[in-house]
Amino acid sequence: MNVEVNNESGVEIDAHGLMRLSRFVMSSLRLHPECELSIKLVDEDTMARYHVEFLDLPGPTDVMSWPMDELRPGAEDDSEPPLGHLGDIALCPTVAAAQGAKAGHGTWAELELLTVHGILHLLGYDHAEPAEKAEMWDVQGRLLEAWRAPGNRLEGV
């Protein structure tokens, strides 16, 4: 799985860790082994500009996603999933830091959560309706739990 991380935020972030997490999530959701994902870390001004331009909402947000090839999680029947570009995610580390501090789990845990959240959005998950939100939060929680379990991380991937 090809994951590109471009850090334009001015904040030092473990790009390799974000790549490993993304590959873990993409593999767990049975995406094609050659599927592509781009992650861009941006500052608050850039994220605020994206937020206005694409959602017509003021101020910076934590994560935004732009799907490309409308991929969905792979079937459990071992059939070959479609190849494609999953899409692009923008993360704002300074917003993540504030949210992580407020939630009591820190910046890295918040960036992990936002990365998984962004990938799920790229795969068609949403949280506008209560049932959608419950499903998305369930999948997000299970993926994060699996990622954080000892020995479950795809080391070196």
What does this structure look like?
Single strand-specific metallo-endoribonuclease involved in late-stage 70S ribosome quality control and in maturation of the 3' terminus of the 16S rRNA. Keywords: Cytoplasm, Endonuclease, Hydrolase, Metal-binding, Nuclease, Ribosome biogenesis, rRNA processing, Zinc. The chain is of the alpha/beta class and 157 residues long. It has a single domain, classed as Collagenase (Catalytic Domain) (3-Layer(aba) Sandwich), CATH 3.40.390. The protein is built from 5 helices and 4 strands, in the order βαβαββααα. Strands 1-2-4-3 form a 4-stranded mixed β-sheet, sandwiched between helices. Helix 1 crosses helix 4, helix 3 packs across helix 4 and helix 4 packs across helix 5. 31% of the residues are buried. The model has no long low-confidence stretch (mean pLDDT 91).
Please sum up the structure shown.
With 157 residues, the protein is of the alpha/beta class.
Secondary structure topology:
Layout: E1 2-7, H1 15-28, E2 36-41, H2 44-55, E3 63-67, E4 85-91, H3 93-103, H4 106-122, H5 130-148
Parallel strand pairs: 1-2, 2-4
Antiparallel strand pairs: 3-4
Helix pairs in contact: 1-4, 3-4, 4-5
Structure characteristics:
5 helices, Collagenase (Catalytic Domain), alpha/beta, 157 residues, globular
